[in-house]
Every structure is written in C-alpha cells, then in structure tokens.
Design brief:
heterodimer, A: mainly alpha, 3 domains, two-stranded antiparallel ribbon, 3 strands, elongated, B: mainly alpha, 3 helices, 48% helix
Chain lengths: 575, 125
C-alpha cells in the first residue's frame, strides 16, 4: 500500500491523525487521554498549515488515482476551523466519561477535515460516509431511549443522502470519465444527484427536520461536536462544486426563515439552537448561490465564525445541562419552561451565552458582524433586491430567535429557583477561549480575511454599516420585549416534515398491518368454510351410506340397462 | 317664606352638630423617630432579590433602552445612506424595518403554532 502512495510532501493525510488517534482514546485513561484530546487536534492543525496548493498526496484505488490531499485557500480555511473546533470540543469534553462518544467525535472531525482536503469525488464520498457513521455514534452516545431512536432516524436520512450522492458520483464518472472534484453546476442527472446528496447534509428542505430532531438528543458535550462538521462540510462542497447555482439562493432563503419561525415556536433550548444552525447555514447556502467572489468569501468566513459562536452557544447550553442533572433529568434540564434566573449562579456561562448570542446576531464588534455582512453586501452589490430585503429581515430575526430568546429564557426571565454553579474548569476554559475568539475576530477581522479564498478589501466597519446594523438589531430587541407575552413558552413541540416518517408512516404501517391481519383472518375463515363444505360434500356422498359409496345389486343395473335399451328402441322406431 | 324654610332647614342641619371638644394636645413625639426599613424584596428561594431584577433596575433598563433606541435612530441620520433600492435611504428605515419584520415573524409563528403545536410528548405516545 505504501508503494501506491505518490506523496509529494505528505506521508499521510492530516485527517488520519484524528481518525486513527480516535482509536487510541479508549485504550488510554486519565491524563494520557487528556493529552490526546488536546494534542491530536493541535497536531492536525499543524499538519493542515503545512498543506500547500494543489495535489499533495495521492493513492491508487481500483483504476483511479485518488487525491487524498489537495490544498487550496478554501480547503485550508475549512480544515483549520474543523481542527480548532476539535481542540475546543476536546477541551470542553475532557470530563466526559463516555469514551465511545469522544472517539466517534474525533473520527467524525477527522473525516470532516478529510472532505475539506479531498481533491476527488471518491475520496469525498468515503469521508462523507465516515462522517455519517461517526456522527450517528455521537448522537447515540446520549444513551437515552430518545437518543437511540433519534440516532436511528439520523442514520437513515444520512444513508439516504449517501446513496443519492453515490448514484450521482457514479453517474458523473460515467459521463465525464473524471473523478476530479471541481466546479460542476447542476446541469445533468449526475450533478443534480450530487447536489441533492450535498443539500441533504446542509439541512435543506424538505428534509431539514433531521437536524433539530437528532442534535439535541446527544449528550451535553456531543451536540457541541455535532454542530460544527456535517453542515459546514456540506457548505464547503457546495462552494467548490456549485457556487453560483441560482436555486441555492432560494433554498437558502427558505432555510433562513424556516430556522427562525421554528425556533420561535420551540421550548427546548438546544432545539432552538439546532433550528438556528439551519438558519445560519441558510445564509451560507445563499452566499454559495450568489457565487460572486464577495459571496463565496462571505459564506466561507461565515462558516468559520459560525462554527465558533454556535459551539460557544451549545457549550453554554451544555454547561447548563451538565450542572442541572438530577434523578429526574439524568441528561440535564433543557426546557425553557424549567429554566430561568440562572445568571445569578452561573455568571461565566451566562456571559459566554450572551457573547455567542451577540455574535450569531452579527452585532458590531463580534465575529458574526464581519462575516455575515459580506453575504448581505454581495446581494446588495448584485442588485438582488428581494434577496437583500429578505437577508436584512432575517438578520433581525436571528437576533430575535437566538440573540435574545436563548439567553433570555435560559438565564433570565422568570426565576426558576435553580442555582447551579458554573461548570468545571475545562468547560469554563473552552467557553472563555471561544468567547475571546468571537470578540477578537469581530474587532480584528484582518487575519480571517487573509485566509479567505479570494483576496478582499472589504471594510465592515463603516459608520453607515455599523449604525444600520445597530438600528436593525436594537429595534428587533424592542419587538421581542413588546411581544414577550406572545413568546411565552409552553410544553409543546411544533410538527415538522419528520411527522411524515415519525407519525404518518408509522400509523400507515400500523393500519396496514391491522388491515392485512383482518384480511388474512377473513381469508382463513373463508378457507375454513370452503374446506369444511368440501369435506361435508365428500362425506355426504362418500360416507358408507352415501350415494356414491353404496353397493348396488347387479339386478338393478340389468334393470336400468333394459330400460335404456327399451328407450333406444322406441326412439329408433318412432322418431 | 321660602327663605324661612331654608333657614330652618339650615338650622335643622346644624342642630345635630355638637361642638367639637377641644383637641387634646398631641403628646410630643420623640425627636427622631426612625421609619421602619422596608422589607427586602425576596426571590423564590427566600433570598434577597438580585439587584438586576429589582423593579427599579428594570425601570432604569427600559428607560435606558428607549434612550438608546432614539440615539441609534438619530445616529442613522448623521451618515449618508446607501441608495441602490431607494427605500433603504428613507428616514429611520433600519429601525422600522427591523421592528416591523420581527413583529411579522412573531405573529406568523404564533399563527403557525395554532396548527403545528402539539404536546411535547406527542411522539412518545
């Protein structure tokens, strides 16, 4: 196998460090595991920064030459943030005792890096499926009945996506004879299948519900990992393969408002944040759809900052869960109706939650402001009036559903009487790290802009831009507090597309089973009746006294023969 | 005649009134009677209410918020706005647009909730 490797500068892909390192985690314990949890992502990050432009590592597979590592600005940007996320996630999960979850999460992160560095469709597909396996195990590691079922539904959706993608890849190779993963555009059956396969992982309609269904069921640390990789690798492959595809603008716009509306209806704090992932990925999909250099830069920068602030928000939520575990809620409290007033005893977690909430809302001087505004600017520069007004409304809506709703209902609102402390040091350290990054990138966007795929001289901090955004967000805040009675939470969920396979399909299967069993019962009854009637008939004629079983004297036969002959004679003579 | 009646009525009204007894002089109050301190506001656990959620603080926060809203709206008028689509250059556009679209989204979500909301044990049944 080693002889098949035609490496120019790498012996192994940086993704292998995390994937194979993940298998070491269960066999070591104590401080050694901690070292691996923090060291492996840093080692991977160092390796990623050594990746130059172009193909760096190849391997032969069947008749194809796979490009395991193919560097570009875009791939390095995504791989870098995936490695940073794995490090912060590992730090946050240092006290997680479920080693299976940690191993799966690291293999999952390594696979995401593999996708980002892959140069051909077969490599993309293989890492894509590895991600599905790793993430399913992370969901399943929630170790509740609900997480087990959610993991199964999650696996089914992603296996479906994988099959569609595989069909697309095979058809594409048949059509073009090439396995190179390059810009393709949706213009044939093959590319449409590939696009659909990618979109399923972004949480695009109609299958968006897999995300808010599965992610919140993972453990307090598992959801932090889950929030980062699947959807953002999907954004990466859209940017590479389908930048400028018009339909993505409308799909992304739908995702943006879907996330806001459903998050407003939601009572579970982690489901609120899960819906807001769909919402935020919607902005990136719109950016991919616009496809200009500014838009692609915006989508890529937004993916980078989103991973940080979304993980921060989920760390904050995870800390609340971790510190509110009890016999009734072994996984911790998650419902807004059970929470409130926690700012009094969890100041650091509250501040981290607020920083994440401000960043997701694109508040000036936070990371979201310097990234998301590029997509809005691209729509504005392109004269896309409807899209620009929709993005503007959505920016206000993000502040409404995530920027205020999450911290308000979890840390303020009515006093639940709960007084949990801030979580252990490692969880606090992870939150501080990402809070600092949210603000640092917001104040100093230069280093992030330098990593973007296209050179940019974009200036986010113009007076007009800052004042406009402040007006938009603060008046959105006013709307929240004015309409607070309408936003009061109840013990409800909002039905989504998953109703079709969680309820309707189940009811139909149950009804079909019932109908089939009734039909089969009816058939059995008719069968019994028929068989009995046949037996009765046979028995009637063939029993010892039956007409067909009786012995008849020879004289009777002679008598009837005479009668027949006589009848024949009469007919012969007279007819 | 009528004047006499009125005067009689007036006398009748005045008749039951007994002269007020001379008001006894109030005893000298002690010079500095300390007013009893207000009982502290308590939270659900019976502890003193956190300063951030006291009614006075909330009033101040509302007041400060309104001033801030007015301030940022004024700030918007001090810069030259973008004018590509026209309406975004109108006075206070970002203020009313942010408010109005949020109201629309909340109302839409509320209406959708009447159709889609189910008990959170819906799928467990």
């Amino acid at each position: 196998m080693t002889s098949d490797l035609l490496s120019t500068s790498f012996v192994v892909s940086p993704s292998f460090i995390l994937i194979f390192g993940a298998f070491l985690l269960p066999v070591v314990g104590g401080w050694a595991r901690g070292v691996l949890l923090l060291g492996l992502p840093l080692l991977t990050l160092g390796a990623i920064w050594q990746v130059g432009d172009g193909v760096q590592l190849t391997a032969n597979f069947l008749d194809y030459q796979l490009e395991l590592v193919d560097g570009s600005n875009l791939s390095r940007l995504f791989a870098t943030i995936f490695a940073i996320m794995a490090f912060a996630g590992g730090l946050f999960a240092l006290n997680q005792t479920r080693v299976m979850e940690l191993s799966a999460a690291f293999a999952y992160a390594g696979s995401a890096i593999g996708v980002a560095l892959a140069g051909d469709l077969i490599t993309v597909f293989m890492y894509w499926e590895l991600m599905a396996v790793g993430s399913t195990i992370v969901v399943w590691s929630g170790r509740s009945e609900a997480s087990g079922r959610a993991a199964m539904r999650y696996a089914l959706i992603h296996l479906l996506g994988g099959v569609v993608l595989m069909i697309g890849v095979i058809a594409y190779i048949q059509e073009t004879g090439s396995i190179d993963f390059v810009a393709m555009g949706a213009n044939s059956f093959a590319t449409w299948a590939i696009l659909i396969g990618f979109l399923i992982n972004t949480g695009a309609p109609p299958l968006s519900a897999w995300l808010p269904d599965a992610y919140p069921e993972a453990s307090w640390s598992g959801t932090v990992f889950l929030s980062a990789f699947t959807t953002k690798t999907a954004v990466y492959v859209l940017l590479v393969g389908f930048a400028g595809e018009q339909i993505l603008i409308w799909i992304g716009t739908y995702m943006i408002f879907y996330g806001i509306i459903y998050a407003l209806l939601e009572n579970d704090m982690r489901r609120i944040l899960a819906y807001s992932i769909v919402n935020q990925v919607g902005f990136m999909v719109v950016g991919a759809g616009i496809g200009t250099e500014m838009a692609v830069n915006g989508a890529a920068a937004h993916a980078f900052t989103h991973i940080i602030y979304k993980a921060l928000l989920l760390m904050s939520a995870g800390s609340v869960m971790y510190m509110t575990r009890d016999a009734d809620n072994p996984g911790g409290k998650r419902k807004c109706t059970d929470l409130g007033g926690l700012f009094q005893s969890m100041p650091l977690t509250t501040i981290a939650g607020i920083v994440g909430a401000l960043a997701i809302s694109s508040f000036p001087w936070t990371s979201g402001f310097v990234s998301k505004s590029m997509t809005n600017q691209a729509a504005y520069d392109g004269g896309m009036m409807v899209v620009w007004f929709a993005l503007l409304a959505a920016s206000a809506g993000v502040f409404l559903h995530a920027g205020i709703k999450f911290p308000w209902f979890v840390f303020f609102q009515k006093d639940s009487g709960l007084r949990p402390k801030d979580p252990p040091w490692n969880m606090r350290a992870a939150m501080i790290l990402f809070s600092v990054l949210c603000i640092w990138i917001g104040v100093q966007p230069g280093p992030l802009y330098a990593l973007l795929p296209y050179p940019t001289d974009y200036q986010p901090y113009t007076s007009a831009h800052v004042y406009e955004m402040l007006q938009l967000l603060l008046y959105a805040g006013l709307a929240f507090f004015v309409l607070l009675p309408m936003l009061k939470r109840k013990l409800t969920i909002a039905l989504d597309f998953d109703w079709f396979y969680r309820k309707l399909a189940v009811e139909m299967a149950r009804s079909l089973t019932l109908t089939t069993s009734k039909f089969l019962g009816g058939c059995a009854w008719v069968h019994d009746k028929l068989v009995n009637a046949l037996i009765d008939l046979a028995s009637h004629h063939h029993n010892p006294r039956g007409v067909l079983a009786r012995t008849t004297p020879a004289g009777v036969m002679v008598f009837w023969v005479v009668i027949l002959l006589f009848a024949y004679l009469v007919m012969y003579l007279f007819i | 005649m009528s004047k006499n009646k009125k005067s009689k009525k007036a006398q009748a009204k005045q008749a039951p009134q007994t002269p007020k007894p001379p008001t006894p002089e109030k005893p000298q109050a002690p010079q500095a009677m300390p007013t009893p301190p207000k009982p502290p506001l308590l939270d659900v656990n019976g502890h003193p209410l956190h300063w951030l959620v006291r009614p006075n603080t909330i009033k101040v926060l509302w007041l400060g918020g309104i001033v801030l809203l007015a301030f940022v709206t004024w700030l918007g008028t001090t810069v030259h706005p973008h004018e590509k689509f026209g309406i975004e250059a109108s006075l206070g556009f970002y203020s009313w647009y942010g408010f109005a679209t949020c109201v629309a989204m909340v109302v839409f979500a509320k209406l959708l909730g009447f159709v889609l909301n189910k008990k959170d044990t819906y799928y467990d049944q």
